[in-house]
Amino acid sequence: MGPVGGGPGLTHGGPMGLREARELVPVVLGWLRRPDPAAFLGDLAAMPPSRHAALRHLLTNQGLAPLVADAVAEGSGAEGAPADASGGDPHGAQWAATDTVRWLAVQLDQNRARMAAFAADLAAVLAGAAAAGIPVVPLKGGLLAFTRYREPALRPMADIDLLVRPADEPGLHAVLERLGYGLVDPADTRHRSFSRPGEGVAAHDGTHPGNPREVEVHTRLLRSVWLDRGGVDLAPYLWAAAEEGRLLGQPAMVPTDAALVTDLASHATLHLMRGSGMLLHWRDVAHVATGVGELDEAFAAWAYPALALAARALPGGGLPAKVERLAPAAGAGLAALAARVPLDDRAGLNLQGVQASSLPWLRSRWRRWRPNPWLVRLANPGLPAPAAYPVYLGRVGARAARKAARAVLGGGR
After folding, report:
1. Residue 252 main-chain phi, psi, to 5 deg
2. Among 68, 118, 322, 378, which residue is least crowded by beta carbons within 10 Å?
3. Mean pLDDT computed over 26-40
4. For residue 32, which of 68, 61, 79 has the smallest C-alpha distance?
C-alpha cells in the first residue's frame, strides 16, 4: 500500500513541518493504544488551531484517518463533539477541534463507500479466477480489511494485491481484461498493474470513493536492498503456507497467520528502507502478530525491523516478548538499531507524505539510495556499522556505474 493512485499516501496540502509531524506521532500512537474518546477530544481541544491541518495531513498519509475516526466515534457524535465556544471564530481552538471531528467522520463515511466498491471488485476477480481454475493469494489490505478488521472501512487500501503462480499469470490477465481492466505499464517487471479506463484521482484524499482502484498482480514477492538484483523471494514460502479458503464468499488461497506476519512485516521493512513507511503497516503487523504463538524465524532479518518497531509503538498482546525471542535470528546489529531508533521519520516513516515519483530524478534517486541505517544494515548484515557504511556506498557507486554503462551501450537507464 502506498501513495499511488489515490491511496492513503495522498494528501490534501503541502508538506508539513517535520518537527511538527514528529511531535504528533506519539499523540496518534497514544490514541491507537488506548482509544479513549474523552481523552481524544481533550487532546484536540488543547491543540493550537494551526496544528489541526498538520494532524489531518499526518492521519491521511499514514492511512489512519478512518481507524482514528472509529476509535473516537463514541465521544465525537453530536453530543460528544467539543462545544464551539469560539463564537463561530474559524481561528478558535474549539472550532478547529469540532471541524477535525467532522472531517474524521467524513473520512470514515467515504472509506465505507470506497471499501464497498473494493469488495465488489475483489469478489469479481476471485470468482473469475476460480472459474478459470487459477489459485490466487490475496495480499495485504485485500486480505486484512475483509478478515482482520471489525469493519473493512477501518483499513484503507490503495489497490488490490494478488499473488499468482507464474504459469497462471496470463490466465489471470485474461480474467482482468474480461472484467474491464487494462495493463498500465507492460515494461514494469516487478508486478503488473491493471486499471479501468477513465480512472483518475478525484481528490487528494486517501479515502475518497472516486479515486482509482487498481489491481496489482505479483508472481514474486522480492525483498531486496538493490531492487533489481539479489534479495529473497517470499512467494514460494507464502504458497507453501497457503490453504484453500474463502474470501468475500469466493475461493481464495489464504496464508497461515505466521506466514502472513512474515509477509506483512518484511513488506513494511522494505518501505522503512525507502523512507516510505506508514504507521498503518505497524498497526497491521501488531494486529496479526499478537494472535500468533511464536514468530517464524524464516526471513527474520527482513521481518524483524518492522516487528520490533510495531512492538515498541503498540506493545500489547505479549508482542514485545515474542519479538525479543526473534532477535537472535535477525542479528545483533538490526536488534540494536530497532531498539534505539526514534519512532518517526528516522525509523523510515514518510511523515510528510512525500511521493518519490513526484520528485526530480536526482532527488528521487537520493531519497531511495541515501545511506539510511536500514539499508546499510540489510545490505551488510555481518559488518559492524563503521565498515558497513563505506561498503554500502561503494556498492551504490558500482550500481550507478553499471546503470550508466547500460544507458550508454543500450540506450536505456
Report:
1. -160, 155
2. 322
3. 90
4. 68
Give the tens place of pLDDT for each residue, 70-91: 987 754 443 444 444 444 555 5
With cut-offs at 50, 70 and 90, classify the pLDDT of residue 12.
Answer: very low
pLDDT, tens digit (0-9, with 9 covering 90-100), for 357-395: 777 877 887 877 888 888 888 888 778 888 889 988 888
Q: Which amino acid is at 10?
A: L
Q: Which amino acid is at 310?
A: A
The CA angle 148-309-306, to the nearest 5 degrees, is 65
Could you tell me the strand order of the sheet in which 192-195 lies?
Answer: 137-139, 159-163, 214-218, 192-195, 182-183
Residue 4 grid cell: 499511488
Q: How far is residue 94's CA from residue 101's CA, in Å, rounded to a whole number?
A: 11
Contact (CB, 8 A) for 27 and 344? no
Specify the pLDDT at position 203: 84
pLDDT at position 228 is 58
Dihedral sign (CA 256, 261, 264, 269): negative
Query: Do the Cβ atoms of 4 and 356 come closer than 8 Å?
Result: no
- The DSSP 8-state label assigned to residue 15 in this structure reads P
C-alpha cell at 161: 494485491
Q: Where are the alpha helices (DSSP H) in 275-410?
A: 279-289, 300-313, 319-330, 332-340, 361-369, 373-379, 385-410
Give the C-alpha separation, 383 to 375, whole Å. Answer: 13
Cα separation, 115 vs 346, in Å, equals 32
Q: Provide mean pLDDT across the span 331-359.
A: 89
C-alpha cell at 316: 500489547
Select from 52, 19, 30 the least CA-distant residue to 346.
19
Element (H, E) at 215: strand 214-218
Neighbour tally for 217: CB within 10 Å: 23
Nearest to 139 by CA among 223, 6, 257, 264: 264
CA gap 71, 92 in Å, rounded:
25
Give dist(CA 278, CA 275) in Å, integer. Answer: 9
Per-residue pLDDT band for 402 (boundaries 50, 70, 90) equals confident
The Cα 329–Cα 331 span in angstroms is 6
Residue at grid coordinates 551488510 = 380
Range of weakest confidence among 4-18, 33-47, 215-229? 4-18
Host H or E run for residue 233: strand 232-233
Residue 367 pLDDT: 78
